[in-house]
Amino acid sequence: MKTPFTRNAVISWLFFFGLGLGTFFFLRHINKGPKIDGIPASLRQGLERNEQISRKLPVQRVLEFPKSAAVLKPRANGKYGLKTALDSASFRMQVVNPTSGDTLSFTTDQLKALPKTEVVFDFKCIEGWNQITWWAGLRFSDFIRKFYPHLLNPDGTLKYAHVGLMTPDKQYYVGIDAESMMHPQTLLCYEMSGQPLPLNQGYPLRLIIPVKYGIKHLKRIGYLYFSKEKPKDFWAERGYDYDAGH
Asked: What does the DSSP assignment read for 19-57?
């Protein structure tokens, strides 16, 4: 005669076995279905619905900390786009003018001539770690007001919905919404912890955008362009959330 404990144990095992089997076939069905950018369409559509909701919320200012709270040698989150040898003397950030199609080149000295802004914030990586870090550079919004005022609406917003950035070798690339790029804490960054950027942190120029996770903080900005549609994005093509905000 079976005891109640035995019956309950059998029922529990059958339940979990059925749940696992159902999950297996459900995931197999998703993987065999249509794909968007190589990602199962149902997963990509779910991420896009989340993004639509988040885009209705204003981009908030990220909490800042005193410099004394920052780590001196921040952890580097990835090496994509940094493997090609760098000639710092010839380095230029290439910016495509969407109205004329011309490309202008900017040296780091030209960018350093604009007012410097510092930000100390909690840098968050999708790998699950975070560090309080100290960065300095010029605000992207100041760069636009100085060199591309014709791309601004009367209220100071960009006429284009997105900004795309790529490393010089085009091996790493991100697409970012214009509101986040024009945020006052978003920097074209050339200093870390009070010193020039080290090579593994994107020397001589990188993006720091505190309202996004680390995958959007592109190192070594080689190209910058404006788009009405979403630019291609390295990690979004590999199944991650395009927005990557937190």
From this structure: HHHHHHHHHHHHHHS-EETTEEHHHHHHHHHHHHHHHTS
Per residue in 181-220, pLDDT tens?
999 999 999 999 999 999 999 999 999 999 999 999 999 9
CA distance 24 to 240: 21
> No. of H helices and E strands in the chain?
5, 12
What b/e sequence results for 153-180 when a residue is b if at least 16 CB atoms lie within 10 Å of its CB, and e otherwise? eeeeebebebbbbbbbeeebbbbbbbbb
| Angle, CA 107 vertex, CA 103 and CA 108 arms, to 5° | 135
Torsion of the alpha carbons at 30, 36, 42 and 48, rounded to the nearest 10: 150
What Rg value do the Cα atoms of the chain yield, rounded?
22
- 184 near 139, Cβ under 8 Å? yes
- Domains of the chain, start order: 64-238 (3.90.420.10)
Q: What is the pLDDT of residue 246?
A: 73
The Cα–Cα gap between 18 and 3 comes to 23
* Helix, strand, coil share of the chain (percent; to 5): 30, 25, 45
Looking at 76-215, list the stretches that DSSP marks H as alpha helix, in order from N- to C-terminal side: 108-112, 140-147, 178-181
Instruction: Tell me the C-alpha distance between 224 and 96, whole Å.
Output: 7
